[in-house]
Prior knowledge:
The chain is of the alpha+beta class. It contains five helices and six strands.
Amino acid sequence: MISRVKDRTRKRFGRLVVLEQAGFDHSYHARWLCQCDCGKTIVVSSSNLGRSTQSCGCYRDEHYGQGRQKKHGLWKSDRWWMYQSARSRAKKKSISFSIKVTDIPEIPSHCPILGFPLVRSVGVGSQSFNSPTLDRIKPELGYVPGNLQVISQRANVIKNDASAEEIRKVADYMAKLEAA
């Protein structure tokens, strides 16, 4: 049953100013047509007005979406995803992390170590050997400016646990097998 509605016309809630009542929602809360400071209009339930809804969505875009895009121009780019992944790894493994998205080098077209084209895989857990990855040149330094390069997943896996001497021994062994 619909109870008496408190008039909210011309009242301000964050960036919204109520213009007029716009009916009722499924829970019988009054709905209000509001004008946002940015110029857009939006209909908001009285149960959300001033609580979870204080703008048409422009505030969220400025602070969590387009605002980040304007800041460095890399939001949701391949470099941004590498940054997010590196930050997560650093936190889990207690690795030093003091980089910004802009500290991540441009992604080359080909792996600088193995020479094949770099192609980003899309989807959770779908990283392939030719995907670009962020490599710490000297792992013990962590994710710090100047200690980063973009290489293929394959090159990073090869480099991950082996020392230069171990890689040389494997290369020598493989060369002997090919010569035989």
